[in-house]
Write a structure and sequence with these properties.
Keywords: Membrane, Transmembrane, Transmembrane helix. This is AB hydrolase-1 domain-containing protein. The chain is α/β, with parallel strands linked by helices. It is 40% helix and 13% strand. α3 links the parallel β3 and β4. The relative contact order is 0.13.
């Protein structure tokens, strides 16, 4: 009897042990399977992240799915097109010929105003154009601070502006004007930089001054500029995601403007502005940010006077209440480059060239050499 009980217990124990063994073996995966699953998960996350940071393809003007071409355009040596708009007197009758370079989030139809009275009085012709990716100009995937200067030169040649012409650049277009002074100085009769955007990482700035100017930016703009400088491949994602505040300039936050700017904004917003971003923000706004605050091919503070024989003039205009580009940085540039004629306007914000009579004063100062304060 004892022996029989012992055998039954042993059989039950064996069956339980067998079931337990089977259960354990059913939950255990081979080491190689864990490794494969981990790799697949990581690859899926990377693929998702890659897709999230990729901008949509641009809608090229004139393509089957893009906006129509409505402006006159010139074809550049690399096959791209630049759209332009002419102002003032016919160029065949002009004594002074000016190429105007627009700013951030703008286009050829929104230039600094040139009064017809001044144009006719002095014989002024001005052409504004859409910078690469804006309006109806083709994007430039290889865009740099040099390429815009070369675009200006080719535009002038296509329009037969002659061996020399003037350049006026506003805001981000002002930064591009430094590029003209660097790469095509032999083509310039003179240049005016109006509230030009600065790159806080230009090595010519003392570290303390650059930090001071940078800290005066809104916190969300400090982060947006960091991304454009250190991780330009994330600029599109950073400014379109919903977790953190994007660039206040891209978002058109009204608080970034001065008192004078708020009075002038309606003048800039008049007319149809839908063309500005129509080909895609990635090839216009965000390309601008990456070039303006990313890597640089030169430092403007290293430039030499392109008009050492006084055959031309370089003017820099800035408002002391500009909340977008800090005046302390422009003052330093003017000190480093004594051949630049610096004009600082009391009470003026970033948009001062659109104030009554201001643009005519800037143009007269450029072409006639008149001192305007």
């Amino acid at each position: 009897m004892v022996e029989l009980i012992t055998k039954k217990i042993s059989a039950a124990s064996a069956r339980a042990h067998t079931r337990k063994g089977k259960q354990n073996s059913g939950l255990k995966l081979p080491y190689g399977m864990y490794k494969t699953i981990s790799i697949v998960v990581v690859m899926a996350l990377l693929a998702f992240g890659y897709q999230a940071i990729q901008p949509p393809p641009p809608k090229i003007c004139g393509s089957s799915d893009g906006p129509p071409v409505t402006a006159p355009r010139v074809k550049l040596s690399d096959g791209r097109h630049l759209a332009y708009k002419e102002h003032g007197v016919p160029k065949e009758e002009a004594k002074y010929k000016i190429v105007y370079i627009h700013g951030f989030d703008s286009f050829r139809l929104n230039p600094m105003p040139l009064s017809q009275e001044l144009a006719e009085e002095l014989g002024i012709y001005m052409v504004s154009f859409d910078r690469a990716g804006y309006g109806e100009s083709d994007p430039n995937p290889k865009r740099t601070d040099k390429s815009t200067a070369l675009d200006v030169e080719q535009l002038a040649d296509h329009l037969d502006l002659g061996p020399k012409f003037y350049v006026i650049g506003f805001s981000m277009g002002g930064q591009a004007t430094w590029g003209c002074l660097k790469y095509i100085p032999h083509r310039l009769a003179g240049a005016a930089l109006i509230a030009p955007v600065v790159n806080y990482w230009w090595p010519g700035f003392p570290a303390k001054l650059a930090k001071e100017g940078y800290s005066l930016q809104r916190v969300q703009d400090q982060w947006a500029l960091r991304v454009s400088h250190y991780a330009p491949f994330l600029t599109y994602w950073w400014n379109t995601q919903k977790w953190f505040p994007a660039s206040s300039v891209v978002a058109r936050v009204i608080e970034i403007f001065s008192k004078q700017d708020l009075e002038l904004i309606p003048r800039l917003l008049s007319g149809d502005r839908t063309q500005i971003r129509q080909q895609g923000e990635s090839v216009s706004l965000f390309s601008d940010m990456n070039v303006g605050f990313g890597g640089y091919t030169f430092d403007p503070m290293d430039l030499e006077n392109p008009f050492s024989n006084n055959e031309g003039r370089v003017h820099l205009w800035h408002g002391d209440e500009d909340l977008l580009v800090q005046v302390c940085l422009q003052r330093y540039i003017a000190e480093k480059l004594p051949w630049v004629q610096y004009h600082e306007l009391a009470g003026a914000g970033h948009l001062f060239p659109f104030a009554d009579g201001m643009s005519d004063a800037i143009i007269k100062s450029l072409v006639l050499g008149e001192k305007q304060e």
